[in-house]
Predict the 3D structure of the following.
Amino acid sequence: QIGWVEPDFSKWTKTLWTLRDNYYPGDVGFDPLGLKPEDPKAFANMQTRELQNGRLAMLGVAGMCAQELVNHRTIMETLDFYQKVYSGVDPYAACG
C-alpha cells in the first residue's frame, strides 16, 4: 500500500486526505530498471534533478507554443522553412 490511506467513511474527517506514515513523496515503488538510489540523500538529489528537468521541458514547450502564436506556423513548418533557408533555397519562391 502506497500513498493515501483508504478513506473510512464512518471517520472520514480523520482518514480523508491522510498519507501513510511510510510514504515518501515521489517514491511510489515503480523502478523497473533499478535506478533509484538507496541512499536517502542521493534519492533527494535525483528528485531535485528530475524536477529541474521537468521545469526545463515545460519552458521548452512554452517557447514552442509562443513561437507558433507569433509566426502562425507549426514547429514542423518552421523547421522546414529554416532547412530551406540554410540549404540555399529561397523559401519564398513558391509564394509567387
Remarks:
- The helical segments are 12-15, 40-71, 75-86.
